[in-house]
Amino acid sequence: MFHHNGNNTPGLVTRYDLVVLDEIQSIQGDSTGELVAGLKVYLESGRFSRGNTEASAEAGFVMLGNITLDENHKPVYSDEGIFNEIPNFLRDTAFIDRIHGIISGWLMPRISKDTPSQSLGFKGDFFSEVLHNLRSEPQYTDYVNLNMRLIDCNDLRDRKAIVRLATAYLKVLFPDLQVSDSEFIKYCVQPAVDLRQQVRDELHKMDKEYAKVYISVE
């Protein structure tokens, strides 16, 4: 993932914009804690160390996993916390705190014959190139920092996560930056807050040292 010490070659995070970890609930082992320790350092600073190699990268992570749902299509472990079903070594609250947001996949409709769009759209490889080139454009983050106003968001990780998520929404939905104040809040800031709020809610269920907070938009 980070660096192959055997043949001294760079890992995935140095070569891609995004690394997806699928079936996260089935990942095995890490009795030494080395994987989570490395992930925590990387997610916080963008740096990693493997053997004699120290480097930095900018790849993001997406973790996909299945959780048990009840007859109402709601998480069975909603009260205890949805992280109750992932491997023990990934339940480190300091690691989870570094996750920017949680997408409630159980709210999404199942894929059916009506799912494919009947409208025109970008091909995946073209759209990927667009997103790749937008990553290095600083004006979107500047816009978010200048125009976003949050209430009860004093935690630096909360703010960092929301800024990054809101910036991502802005790039995708308003790449020309022609956006009104109300559109910016509705389509960029509020969805970012909702994603991060999910993380804070789960952390509070796991460890009461994480105070219950309700982040809102001014």
Can you describe this structure?
Helix content is 37%, strand content 11%. By secondary structure, it is of the alpha+beta class. α4 crosses α5. It is globular and about 50 Å long. The protein folds into 2 domains: 97 residues, no CATH class; 94 residues. A hairpin with a 4-residue loop joins β1 and β2.
**Rg for CA atoms:** 19 Å
Total number of strands: 8
Query: What is the tally of helical segments?
Result: 6
Terminal CA distance: 40 Å
Strand content: 5-15%
Q: What is the structural class?
A: alpha+beta
Characteristic terms for this protein:
218 residues, alpha+beta, two-stranded antiparallel ribbon
Short characterization:
The chain has 218 residues and is α+β, with helices and mostly antiparallel strands. The chain is 37% helix and 11% strand.
Spell out the blueprint of helices and strands.
Elements: E1 3-4, E2 9-10, E3 18-21, H1 34-45, E4 47-50, E5 53-56, E6 60-63, H2 93-96, H3 124-134, H4 139-147, E7 150-151, H5 156-173, H6 181-206, E8 216-217
Parallel strand pairs: 3-6
Antiparallel strand pairs: 1-2, 4-5, 7-8
Helix pairs in contact: 4-5, 5-6
